[in-house]
Amino acid sequence: MLRETFVIICRNWTVYLTVVVVLIALAIFDEHSGRTTSGGATSFVWSYIAMCVQGAVIHSETFSEAGKRSGFARSFPYFLKTAALLLAAIVISLPVFLVFPVAKGMSAGVFVFVATALIAYVLVLSLLGTWPTSNITGQGTSLVDALRRGTVRFFPTFGRLFVAIVLPLVLAVLLILVVSQFETSALLLVDGNPNILMLAVSAAAVFLQAASVSYVAVVLARVYISGERDSQEFGRAMA
């Protein structure tokens, strides 16, 4: 699946390059304006990439062809279901938030809450992650269907998703720690001029995130195909 992920990235490299440029531009805008308004746009971008990757896996198509096949009628529910799964992971993590209230200076509480939220998200994706995927074909679209597919291959899926989500975060943190050894500003723009080092680090972090999202999408697409390949309706949807 890792090889398949990088094949998809290489075949659609212009899309990934555009994503890196757009997200860096949004980060610069947030930094310049002093706001954090790009969160929704960033989430949409990652959902779109995941949908395109899964469409490419299921139908053996390019991103452009997969996007045209899905259309708005299937894309919009995909985004809603993706947001619902993220919200479910946050809700599951709320008890930890209550036990370790995240207050200023409470780094331990923040770490525990974030770690719990990540594990909860991986758990939710492992069990129900094919729920949005089903909208690409329109087959097996219920939560019950998603749970059926998820429980069959839960443990290998959980392991793959955990590594795929956590490893890029660890690498990004290590990269930031290395850069922090240099006497440079953490800002992307310094006195109106681009901070080349931080821009390069940010671009690398965005690409790692893109690779992570793509691998997770491939894994869930394969779980979906495995769970639905014997269905006659799925066969007709693939045609």
Count, helices: 10
Low-pLDDT ranges = none
Q: For the report, how would you describe the main beta sheet?
A: 2 strands, antiparallel
Question: Whole-Å distance between the termini?
Answer: 23 Å
Layout of helices and strands:
Elements: H1 2-11, H2 13-33, H3 39-59, H4 63-99, H5 107-128, H6 130-137, H7 143-152, H8 154-179, E1 189-190, E2 193-194, H9 196-228, H10 232-238
What can you see in these coordinates?
The protein has one domain (2-238). Strands 1-2 form a two-stranded antiparallel ribbon. The longest helix has 37 residues, at 63-99. It has 10 helices and 2 strands. Helix content is 82%, strand content 2%. With 239 residues, the protein is mainly α. Helix 1 (2-11) packs across helix 9 (196-228) and helix 2 (13-33) crosses helix 9.
List keywords for this structure.
single chain, mainly alpha, two-stranded antiparallel sheet, globular
Short summary:
The chain is mainly α and 239 residues long. It has one domain (2-238). It is built from ten helices and two strands, in the order H-H-H-H-H-H-H-H-E-E-H-H.
